[in-house]
Design a protein that fits this description.
This protein is α+β, with helices and mostly antiparallel strands. It has helices spanning about 20-45, 65-80, 150-155, 160-170, 185-190; strands at about 1-5, 10, 50, 60-65, 85-90, 95-100, 105-110, 120, 125-130, 135-140, 145. It comes from Cannabis sativa (Hemp).
Length: about 250
């Protein structure tokens, strides 16, 4: 707002924002946030299709594997009385089109990333079921610290299925690690004084252990010596890919 010094007359009035425009902007922002949260919730709750009897194929569906997807496409074409032709059928991509050249219908599906999809389902307040894509279902008991994959109770470190449950419930996975993995336990182990051994000439060796036990004699096997080491249980297999196309099976 400005004033003329001589006549003190108002020469310009600044326009105030319209209250209805402000309300519309706030409403649009709230609606956008709500739709975004709904979309994320729907993505998290999407079911993995494990049956080929699908009466409607839609964008965004997730199938358990490529075999079920191909069977579902054939079933969908049969009940809708149309034919299709396969344009691409690879381990990571599957694409079909309508057999009629004048039809624009097509379907393209690609394999998800190497990381498996985890879906946590609560059975009770302490027992949960985790559905892992292409690997099956696992049951976790957070009170007994067990999992049906047995890695949780064998290693006494939360497995990937248990970590998914902890993430859903907002718990710390570190609290479910065995105490002997923690720094406080290691410090307590060496808290007392560790006395050094005396000179070897001062050792008192009982007669029962004076006899030296040698390893048993073994015979070298007739077959060719192994060049590749045996992998540990659960160790992933290294797959080499061609640098140009990024595919496996050739060099």
């Amino acid at each position: 707002m400005e004033y003329d010094d001589e006549t003190s007359e108002i020469s310009e009035v600044l326009a105030l924002p319209n209250i209805f425009q402000v309300a519309d902007s706030v409403a649009d922002c709230i609606i956008e946030k709500t739709l975004e949260q709904k979309r994320k919730r729907q993505e998290e709750e999407r079911e993995i299709i494990t049956d080929h009897k699908v009466f409607n194929i839609e964008k965004g569906q997730i199938y358990k594997d490529r075999k079920i997807l191909k069977t579902a496409v054939g079933f969908f074409a049969m009940i809708n009385n149309f034919q299709f032709k396969t344009k691409r059928s690879e381990p990571r991509e599957y694409m079909v089109t309508c057999a009629d050249d004048n039809c624009n219908w097509f379907l393209r599906a690609s394999k998800l990333k190497s990381t498996s999809t985890f879906k946590v389902i609560a059975i009770t307040t302490i027992q949960y079921q985790v559905k892992v894509q292409e690997k099956g279902d696992f049951t976790i008991n957070i009170l007994e610290r067990t999992c049906s994959c047995r890695r949780f109770q064998l290693d006494e470190i939360p497995c990937s299925h248990a970590i998914a449950v902890f993430a859903k419930r907002g718990l710390r996975a570190y609290d479910y690690v065995a105490d002997y993995y923690k720094i406080a336990t290691m410090k307590a182990t060496y808290e007392r004084t560790v006395h050094p051994l005396p000179n070897e000439r001062e050792w008192t060796i009982p007669e029962s252990i004076e006899r030296i036990v040698w390893p048993p004699k073994s015979r070298k096997p007739a077959r060719r010596p192994r060049k590749k080491r045996l992998r540990s249980k659960g160790e992933p297999k290294v797959v080499l890919k061609f640098t140009r196309c990024g595919k496996v099976g050739h060099n």
